[in-house]
Structure formats: C-alpha cells, structure tokens
C-alpha cells in the first residue's frame, strides 16, 4: 500500500494490482478532509487510514463512494460520524452485495467446483468479518460541487457504465480525476450494470476533463492515455463479440477465439468472458441491468484460464 502525494494536499492511496479487489483511494486534506472510496474489508481500510494519518490531523469528515461495489465502500463504517456521499442509485446497489456471502465464498477453497475453489483462492487475503453495509446518505443525481478550504471538487455522474451509480471525482484546479471503476489501468475491466456505449462515453468524459493525473479504480496512476486505451479495449471486445455472436458461437467459444493482442498482459485477462457476456446481453437486446449468473461466469472464467494454459 503506497501513499502518493499528488500536490496541493491531494493524495492517492494505491494498492498494487496483484489480484481481485485491489482498489485505489484518494484524500483531499483540506476543510475537514474528504476520502474517495474505502477498501473491501476492515483490515485493509484500517491500513489505508494509517497511511492517511501520516498527513492528516484527524479522520476525514467526508467520504465519497464512486460506486457501490464492496471493494470501494465496505470500509465506510470505520469513518464514524463522517458524511458519506454518493450517487442516488448507490444505496440500493450496495444492498445487492452481501459481506457474509462473500466470506462464505472466501472459505470455499475445498469446493468440488474448480471455478468456485479458484475464486476462493483469489479472496484469500481478504477478511469480510464484521463488515456492516454503510451506504451514502448525501445523494445526488447528475452533479454536485464541494469546496474544501479553497479546493473545488466536482462529482460528476457518468453511469450506467461499470455500474448504474458511477461517478467521477474531479479536482479542476489540481488537474486530477479519481475515476473509481470507470477506469481500470493495465487491468482487465469488468462491468456490472451498464452498456458499452455509456462506458465509452464515460471514458471520453475523463479525457475531456483534460487531467494531468488520473487515479483509476484499479491499477497504476496514469494520464489520459489510460482511458483512451481502455476505450480501445472495450471497442475491440465488442466488435469481436459481435462477429462471434452472429456466427452463432457461445460466449465461452467466443472468448476462447478472441486474440487479446496488446491486452494479453493486463492482469485478470480471464475477465474477457464477463465482457463477452455483457456484449452478448446487449446484442440480444436485454436490459443493461439484467441479472447475471455470476456462478456460471466464474466457472467459465476458470475454464478459459485452463484453455489458455493448454
């Protein structure tokens, strides 16, 4: 875990992208302090708080959740008394995830299902015991501006892209954007409730803000080359998926045939299957928030990994 000074009392807390759930966070150390996203469990969030304690006088009075996935908000409860801010869709989306169920999946390393067992091994470093869902209570629809002792912060809704409640945290004078999971940098993205078109539009929005520093939800800090490259990945996967869909191939058959080319070195490449699934859902004309059989996709991603290994 690394504390990175971005200048003018703005910091990023970065986790090396070594696997599932390794998200990033931010701190604006002005006007009582504002934290952008917490981490997936309480031990990691406590470590994050210790990192921030090196530069802040006291815990932040505000927390912004960029979206509702647990690896960006399940540590909220440790910010006792803080104002928690998010998109209006965020509280309902948070209720879709269950920490106790995730803990049970973490403990399923002896499962007879190889996909489930592999997923459990990926969760080994996390401990979801004691997590209590703590959703945002200050909600907005399109845009919200905050000023903290001379630092202007723009919260900009861009979903449904990665999720329905995605938002960007833009600091215009500092030329910094915290993207949440609208951007995965050198890390294979995965989307939940949204469309390819809206996700590409959200990535274009980051570029249009013209930041010098972009802090992704996962992966290393970058500039506008990050959202541009991820948009190219999404457009490529959608085009390849369309060709296989029209040829009548299944999602797993399509994923096995897609050449990842320059994206093969990104972490978690097996997430390609999830992105093919999203493309097929759109091509069938299904709603952007249609339920997903996560268990089937986890098993399929394990099959895809074994296919590449052989």
Structural write-up:
Helix content is 34%, strand content 17%. The chain has 310 residues and is of the alpha/beta class. Strands 1-2-3-4-5-6-7 form a seven-stranded mixed beta sheet, with helices on one face. Strands 8-9-10-11-12 form a five-stranded mixed beta sheet, with no helix packed on it. α4 crosses α9 (294-309) and α5 (196-208) runs antiparallel to α6. The protein starts with a strand and ends with a helix.
What brief labels describe this structure?
310 residues; alpha/beta; Metallo-beta-lactamase, Chain A; 7-stranded mixed sheet; 9 helices; globular
Number of helices: 9
| CA(first)-CA(last) distance | 34 Å
Q: What is the mean predicted local confidence, pLDDT? A: 95
Largest sheet: 7 strands, mixed
- Structural class comes to alpha/beta
User: Fraction of residues in helices?
Assistant: 25-40%
The name of the CATH architecture is 4-Layer Sandwich
What is the CA-based Rg, rounded? Answer: 19 Å
Order of helices and strands: EEEEHEEHHHEEEEEHEHHHH
| The CATH superfamily title | Ribonuclease Z/Hydroxyacylglutathione hydrolase-like
Q: How many domain modules?
A: 1
Q: How much strand?
A: 15-25%
